[in-house]
Each structure stands twice: as structure tokens, then as C-alpha cells.
Structure of Transcriptional regulator:
Amino acid sequence: MATASSEAARSGSPDPADLGEQQEHSPTRQPPAATAPPPAATLTDAGELLRALAAPVRIAIVLQLHHAPRCVHELVEALDVTQPLISQHLRVLKATGVVHGERRGREVVYHLVDDHLAHIVVDAVAHVQEEAQPV
């Protein structure tokens, strides 16, 4: 006497009893596999980078430099902040590798070292603006 399982095997169709078991073990229902965290030094450096980006004036500087390289006087004008304050924030951004200054004659022109950082700032600003929108 043939069982439903052996008939299903011969006919090529799955056994109905097996379908429930397959659905329970479906890859789409599995929790994501745990991944090992990055090394502690990497997490520390990422924290330092995010701290460097945390000040509103530094966020504004990154947004300005995302559009084009700028010298200090252009940043002062665009952000309506004093020159010493802009210079102080640029020092922090430079120390953490966010910006790089290039001397051109009497001026230093600053630019972003990496566009990934601009995306972090742009996405953060966009997220806050979306949250502020009434529903």
C-alpha cells in the first residue's frame, strides 16, 4: 500500500504534510544572522567622527562644502558666523579627517575629504526635516 508521501514522491508533487514544515523553516521567516561587530578601534574612530559632525556649525560647514570647496571668508559670509568660530570648527573637522585645506595664494580653500560624510549629514538633516513635517 502506497502512502501519501511515497505517492507524492513518485508524482513529483510535495506531500501536503511537508508543506507546513517547509513554510516554518522558510528563509524569509528566519531572523537575520548575527554579525560580528567591527573592532573596538573602528567603533571608537566612528564615534569620534560622529562627535566631530555633531555641532550645528560643523553640520552647516559640511553642507556648504558638499556643494563646492570654500575658503574661510566664504563660509563666514554664507553662515553668518565670525571668522574665529569658523576657523575653530574647521580645525576640528580637519583633525578628524572630514575636511582638507589647500593653500591658494593667500587663502586656504577647504573641501570635503570624502563625499560619504556629506551623505551622512544630508541624510540626518533630511530625516529631521521629515520628522518636523505635520502628518
